[in-house]
Amino acid sequence: MEYVIEMLNIRKEFPGVVANDNITLQVKKGEIHALLGENGAGKSTLMNVLFGLYQPEKGEIRIKGEKVDITNPNIANDLGIGMVHQHFMLVEPFTVAQNIILGSEPTKYGKINLRKAEKEVQELSDKYGLRVDPRAKIRDISVGMQQRVEILKMLYRGADVLILDEPTAVLTPQEINELFEIIQSLVDEGKSIILITHKLKEIMKACDRCTVIRKGVGIGTVNVEETTVDELASLMVGRSISFKTEKDEATPGKVVLKVDDLHVNDSRNVPIVKGLDLEVRENEIVGIAGIDGNGQTELIEAIAGLKKTESGSILLGDTPITNLKPREITEKGLAHIPQDRQKFGLILDFPVSENTVLQTYYQHPYSKKKMLQYENINEYAKRIVEEYDVRTPSIHTKTSALSGGNQQKVIIGREVDRSPDLLIAAQPTRGLDVGAIEFIHRKLVEERDKGRAVLLLSFELDEILNVSDRIVVIFDGKIVADVRPEETNEQELGLLMAGSERKKVGGTE
Amino acid sequence: MVDLLQSIIPPALFFSAPLIFTALGGVFSERSGVVNIGLEGLMVMGAFVGIVFNLTFADVLGSWTPWISIIVAMLVSGVFAIIHAVATVTLRADHVVSGIAINFLALGLGVFLTKEWYQKGQTDMVSRPFYTTNIPFLSDIPIIGPIFFKGIYLTSYLAIILAVVAWYVLYKTPFGLRLRAVGEHPMAADTNGINVYRMRYIAVIISGLMGGLGGSVFALTIALNFSQSTIVGQGFMSLAAVIFGKWHPLGAMGAALFFGFAQSLSVISSGIPLLANVPQVFLLIAPYVLTILALAGFIGRAEAPRALGDPYIKGTR
Amino acid sequence: MTSNRLFNILVPLISVFIGLLAGAIIMLIYGYNPISGYAALWKGAFGDLYFFGETMRQVTPYILTGLAVAFAFRAGLFNIGAEGQVIAGWLAAVWIGTSIEAPMYIHLPLAMLVAALAGAAIAFIPGLLKAKLGVHEVIVTIMFNYIALYSANSIIRNVLTEQADKTEKIAATASLSSEWLATFTSFSRMHYGILIALFAAFIMWFIIDKTTIGYEIRSVGFNKHASQYAGMNVSKNIILAMVISGAFAGLAGSMEGLGTFGNMSIQAGFTNLGFDGIAVALLGANTAIGVILAAILFGVLKVGALNMPTEAGVPSELVDVIIAFIIFFVASSYMIRWIILRFKKGDN
Question: Which residue of C has its CA nearest to A361?
Fold first, then answer.
């Protein structure tokens, strides 16, 4: 069998890190080939090498058997390689057609022939069933449609091999199904697909073969028909991971957080949380399951005081905290591990020590009469670093120099150490390695055992099922189901998250 | 009424032309994502070169002198602007800081060389400036003729024509589409095979050419010599026109015309009954106050290109 | 860690060196002897007590405008409006200095306080627009420079005087000038303001590095989102930083009004104190001590340059060119860092 793409023994170094070491990837014509690995395993680096954004230190690339040097994306384009990036490469104020022709515009006497472009885009869209309006502005169309524009852009440039980088991360289940139909029709037309992912089920469902990378090293390629989810998982992480965190049965106590008929608008002032009710009790971890964009982010921001609510009430213990300032809510006993740790959780340019007092710097003993007491701050920072196993050369090191896992440990240490009544953990393990994930899960359970209420938001169903004592499903701004993890499974949760009614009875409602 | 318009419009056009040229340059630069606070310095360079060239070659070139002077001023300022491009695009310097340095450098060099060559703080007056003209036939049209075609500098027409050309280039050609894409989402442009650095260099050089044109036209129609205080704020006023005109060539032209109009009013207001009692200072500060109001969203929201001021570093997200 | 600190010191030093080198090359091109050029500059700054006094006089407002720009920078704000705030402070100081009668221990502090308030008021609006509407402060402060310039001229002409080009001299009770300092420095215009400038630098260091206010301002300057998450009032801190920044610039204006000139004239253009303050802050890496050192350097260059035409025949504007180069290289520190790293690699 002839390969359309061969990347042989690729090695790519960055200062201080080997991002890719001895990776081989061979893609056959007309196949859907998965590239599997954890976050940070080196998948994107490898694809950027193929796309000409990076140059490899070692190894060679062959296209249809011929050795090539891909020194920039233009060469990749000419060789028929197209890439749909995870963050779309679309110019928002431009129309669909303008985005697609950008860089290879049809002209007439030096003027862009927009009519011709729109016609060609329409034809291409019809051919593959993409249903895209060439005249719509990017900022006015849905995320799923934007992704189809990206695919069209590659097809317009005559790509034979399409690289899709985590294409389902931003899509609804409905859109995911449509995407796979489109991918199938591309393959039927003789295109080849490389699908970068860490979602095992998608690979099992849609791919022909799968190449696995672990920590920058190529592990091997398997036929999807001949493997199982468990085998793929252990190939990806290097050992068979236990999907269970050790924990005892929860004994929920009195209500700590009570959200009643909450309404919140999103940044464009469109309602996104629409009459939501939620309770979290002491000694209990409640997991929120849901597809991104159904109001979970806004819910948490409203509880933390980072977003104004339109109506409804939030009680922390017996105290109403609706629309209070973040500081007042923190002082009343909330701790919050934010979703985006670098954007919200830390001042990356501060030393570790100053980050450990981010919410408490103005309180005794860290300051006295508005004067910072650095001895006390440093002492505290040392304790956090020790107790939470933060690997840092010193408490005076800039926080940006720490790894993601250690940055997260600084936040968790700081938040948990305040002994809050309610701990919100939003995607606490995103992008972290397995060791750090286990550490964090253990900490959450420990906090529960100390009698705290924990609200966990995660987009990884494994995590939700594994850590929670109770799972609530959020859909379209409301809680649509309230189930116990041992009485449900991923399939059922997936359906609930997509808005279908719960058929099986057995939850707490 | 006609008399009134006739006394307002030609001076308004006369004051606006340098602002229009420079603002158009600013539109190109900022649309590509490069902040250009250095417009002032580019105008200084243009004024300096325009005057020096004019003084030096007036005897040789005769009546062509002012035209060739502004072309030379354009070219020199275009080359001068490369410094800003190197600093901001290649060396990832802060755009605002580099712009300030451009302003310092242009004025320092200009005055240094003036003293070096003329042994005093200002040059002589040029003997071959631009003169006003009456357009044959058109100036004979009743009402419109005297207002728009009598006693007007040809450079004013050139400014309006170039604004239309700039609009066509930015909105109708592949070059313009690519340039705007680079200012909105450079990485998207890069993945589409557009050389972001080259586009930004070209845009900044265009701002140099246009700033040089603006500065030299100002020098050869209004100032007529060069000194420390020839260009005092016209570049910043052009920048204000870019923003007030919402980064659109025709908008910038409109804003520049309006600012020129306000400036000319501050000079001739005493002759106009309605305005005689308005303190001059209000007319002087009007462009700046209006620009702040526009930015604050009180006069339509002015939205900057998305990637304005961000360095583009290849291979990062 | 240490290498980062090393960079912070090396970058300004190398920038200054390259700037001076560029100046030397320009002198060579135009047939001057760079050594005698720089010797004249040195002599013009430190040659005798008079020159020294004048240099200190120039350093005084530079420290204050440098602090103004640096303080705003620490909050992530670019205050290009120091220029306008200087004018406002100058005008306000002269206004108080000429219009009221009071004993010195009231009059002088009051004049400086009102000057600081005037600068703060001019900076308040850009701060407010930034905090509440997200309007970029660079453009607004530029626009305010012109508003302040034209308004001040109009006030001098129409309010403080009757169509005169300059105000009266301030009362002796509001003056910073010192007979002792003047005599000591062969009748230079050096005044007590230098002490105030140094004290202001101490204040900035103290606020930024020692207090919770400084903690919040630095936090907001680095990351607004995280600051809000941590319960800080981001808007308040942005406005506060601009106001304090403006107060420093306003004080710089009072140095001119109460110290150097004792009055205010119609300004044809800018004083350039504010723009030079940007260079001072950048070169001083936005720290109080750095600002003092950079202000001394720029004071030396500016005042020393005045001696260059007479002693070496070099036009004094050469110094503006040198300053421009220094700014370029500090701004392009990426390049200097890259070069240093290259050298280090070569060593290994």
Answer: C212
C:134-173 residues touching chain B, CB 8 A cutoff:
135-136, 138-140, 142-147, 150-151, 153-154, 158
Residue type, B1: M
Rounded-to-integer distance, Cα A243 and Cα A444, Å: 16
Residues 252-311 of B with CB under 8 A from A: 306
Digitized pLDDT (tens) for each residue of chain A, 509 residues in all: 589 999 999 999 877 678 899 899 999 999 999 998 876 678 888 998 998 888 899 999 999 989 999 988 888 888 999 999 888 899 999 999 999 999 989 999 999 999 999 999 999 999 888 889 999 999 888 888 999 999 999 999 989 999 998 888 777 767 888 899 999 999 998 999 999 987 777 888 889 999 999 888 888 899 999 988 778 877 877 654 555 677 888 888 899 999 999 999 987 788 899 999 999 999 999 999 987 778 999 999 999 999 999 999 999 999 999 999 999 999 999 999 999 888 999 999 999 999 999 999 999 999 999 999 999 999 999 999 999 989 888 999 999 888 888 999 999 999 999 989 999 999 998 877 777 888 899 999 999 999 999 999 988 778 898 899 999 999 889 999 999 998 988 778 877 887 776 554 444 43
The residues with which A192 forms a beta bridge, in sequence order, are A161
Chain C positions touching A348 (Cβ under 8 A) are 222-223
Q: Quick check: B285 and C146 CB within 8 A?
A: yes
CA distances from A82 to A47, A158, A191, A193, B192 (A): 10, 8, 11, 10, 10
Query: B84 and chain A: CB distance < 8 Å anywhere?
Result: no
CA of residue C228 relative to chain centroid, distance: 31
Distance from CA of A223 to the nearest CA of B (A): 32
For residue A101, count other CB atoms closer than 10 A to its CB.
28
Collect all residues of chain B within an 8 Å Cβ-Cβ radius of residue A74: 193
- pTM across the whole model: 0.86
* Residue of C3, C4, C229, C348 best to disrupt the A interface, most CBs of A under 10 A: C229
Cβ within 8 Å, pair C315-B83: no
Is residue A344 a contact partner of residue A328, using CB atoms and an 8 Å limit?
Answer: no
Nearest-CA distance C152 → chain B (Å) = 10
Burial class (CB in 10 A: 0-12, 13-18, 19+), B298: exposed
